[in-house]
Automatic annotation (TrEMBL):
One of its GO terms (biological process) is fatty acid biosynthetic process. It comes from Geomonas terrae. Substrate binds at A95. The keyword Cell inner membrane does not apply. This is Enoyl-[acyl-carrier-protein] reductase [NADH]. SUPFAM superfamilies: NAD(P)-binding Rossmann-fold domains. It holds the Pfam family adh_short_C2.
Amino acid sequence: MGLLEGKKALIFGVANDKSIAWATAEAMHREGAEIALAYAGEAVAKRVAPLAEKLDCKLVLPCDVRSDEELSRLFGEIREAWGGLDILVHSVAFANKEELKGSFLNTTREGFQTALDISTYSLIAMAREAAPLMQGRDGSIVAMTYYGAQKVFPSYNVMGVAKAALEATVRYLAEAMGPEGTRVNGVSAGPLRTLASAGIGGFGQIAGHVADKAPLRRNISQEEVGNAVLYLASPLASGVTGEIHFVDCGYNIIGM
């Protein structure tokens, strides 16, 4: 029997087969979970549909996470189909491309609001909708973050601020949802070549530096991150909440 046998998992953020969200979906499916996928919109629908088929995924739902109405509709469909929810994975982040290059001083008010709304507030909005579906089910919420929340990386700019807010949100949600038995954690993944990272200026430089300096002298894989999310969502992590779990080949421990 798999670690997640009989569990229902809703995963936001699958864009293609290089997504961390996709590696997570594969890992959870392997361990017995029934998967629902939520994707950003029609632009990625044609890439998500064939991936969903691989997991025999019946619930493949579009959702603009900036809209409370769309989130309410999506979670209503989850309630109707499943009756409840055990696992929620937040692998959603966005900043305008212009904000991810040059000086942080050039951050615009609109760009700041966009990054924080999509990358951070969406976790609060999802958790609020998920809370009644997770009651009494020892639920688990896992959000994806990055070390740029804690240290400065070239061109990460406003996304670093958004991820810092996300990590604080993980802690506050852990306290807010703990009394009902729901755990909330974050996974801080090392640099990966994904659709999201493609928009970050100097990403190749960051990835090369991490590979040279990390204790394991390499970068991570999507599968390693997916397995870490699996652990946090499983009964193996039943006493873990409010944590930021690093999967970065140890880079975060290095001073120089």
